[in-house]
Backbone:
């Protein structure tokens, strides 16, 4: 029997391999890198059922235009002559309307809740995983009246869809963060959210899969595919031809290029984000998003990770220091007591989040193929949705009923 090939060794690919090996499937993971540092290892590690609004929301258009003029802004599209970028932006604008957002909310909510339940199950099965799943919720802290109005409105929307949301006043913040001053008017706390250490999770999962005899082919470039009718029978790489029973495209920001080789359209742009660790002094206790600056704060006891920005950059992996400065300057704007030190170049993590134009991931069968599946386009919530995506792809692979309705994630919606 030929193996199933997973193209992409990020957290989506690894969780897909995890659920497939549970089914007794022989799996080989192919990746273009050495898997030591990728988009899955240095992000904020947030598990966010509260994130039911896709990136392509109506307010992002007006905000995005104003943010375009600042290199330190939370959202930035570098203007350039690029047909794929123009196409992606047009589809983004088309999706950023209330009707499309209303259709997206139930899908994002259901897959997020499924994923969180699978994380809890994973922790029970692997108490030695060291991923440090912290279930203290996520707090959205705001400093301005306009952002307070926006976040409170969203809290009411979340409650409408059955999610728990607590509106906190300025005095309440002192109880949440007793060790230092959080300079904010108030916050909305989503108790159902959580966060973890993504690097620890990724390292454990890769080692576990290796022990379960999942094969890894690293630093291997996919050059094309060999097809017979409606099936892909082999992947052509710079290391030779690899025959396969089934193919799963989990290539992150490069998934669009893989789809192009298979002659279907998968609009995708890499949304570059940055993060860095700091000694947690004085200790921040609550996972938080600093809403005006869109900076994520993930505390892990003695250390804390600050991350953010969405720089639509294609597959450009260079570091833009101004984006990092934007994150750094937000720290003392909200935590004036915190002892922040600007990170050295080697301390700055960067990653390309794979962004679909409508903010929904692509999960399911590729158009015109009976043995090709896709799991990509998760934007900023790849870690959050990874277990559910892997579970669903495994179910489709095994021709089992899916754990949830996935029509909204249709791979062929732009084909």
Residues:
């Amino acid at each position: 029997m030929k193996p199933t090939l997973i193209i992409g060794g990020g957290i989506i690919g690894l969780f897909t391999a995890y659920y497939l090996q549970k089914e007794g499937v022989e799996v080989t993971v192919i990746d273009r890198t050495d898997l030591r540092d990728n988009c899955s290892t240095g992000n904020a590690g947030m598990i966010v059922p509260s994130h039911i609004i896709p990136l392509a929301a109506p307010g992002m258009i007006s905000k995005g235009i104003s943010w375009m003029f600042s290199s330190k802004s939370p959202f930035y599209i570098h203007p350039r002559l690029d047909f794929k970028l123009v196409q992606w932006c047009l589809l983004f604008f088309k999706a950023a309307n209330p009707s499309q957002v209303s259709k997206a909310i139930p899908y994002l909510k259901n897959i997020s809740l499924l994923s969180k339940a699978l994380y809890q199950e994973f922790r029970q099965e692997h108490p030695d995983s060291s991923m440090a799943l912290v279930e203290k919720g996520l707090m959205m802290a705001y400093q301005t009246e306009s952002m307070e109005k926006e976040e409170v409105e969203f809290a009411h929307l979340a409650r409408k869809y059955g999610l728990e949301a607590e509106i906190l006043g300025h005095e309440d913040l002192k109880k949440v963060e007793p060790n230092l001053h959080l300079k904010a008017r108030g916050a909305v706390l989503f108790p159902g959210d959580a966060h973890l250490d993504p690097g620890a999770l990724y390292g454990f999962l890769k080692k576990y899969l290796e022990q379960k005899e999942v094969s890894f082919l690293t630093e291997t470039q996919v050059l094309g595919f060999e097809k017979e009718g409606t099936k892909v029978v082999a992947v052509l790489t710079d290391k030779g031809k690899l025959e396969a029973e089934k193919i799963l495209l989990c290539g992150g920001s490069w998934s669009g290029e893989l789809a192009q080789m298979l002659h279907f359209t998968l609009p995708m742009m890499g949304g570059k984000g940055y993060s860095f660790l700091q000694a947690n002094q004085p200790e921040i206790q609550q996972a938080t998003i600093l809403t005006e600056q869109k900076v994520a704060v993930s505390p892990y006891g003695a250390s804390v990770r600050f991350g953010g920005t969405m720089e639509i950059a294609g597959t450009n992996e260079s570091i833009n220091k101004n984006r990092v400065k934007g994150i750094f300057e937000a720290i003392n704007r909200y935590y004036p007591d915190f002892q922040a030190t600007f990170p050295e170049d080697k301390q700055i993590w960067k990653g390309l989040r794979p962004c679909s134009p409508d903010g929904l991931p692509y999960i399911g069968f590729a158009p015109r193929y009976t043995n090709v599946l896709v799991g990509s386009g998760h934007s900023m919530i790849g870690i959050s949705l990874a277990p559910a995506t892997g579970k669903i792809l495994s179910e489709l692979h095994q021709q089992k009923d899916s754990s949830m309705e996935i029509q909204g994630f249709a791979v062929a919606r732009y084909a």
About this structure: The chain has two domains: 4-41+201-263+359-414, 52-95+133-192+268-355. The domain at 4-41+201-263+359-414 is CATH 3.50.50.60 (FAD/NAD(P)-binding domain).
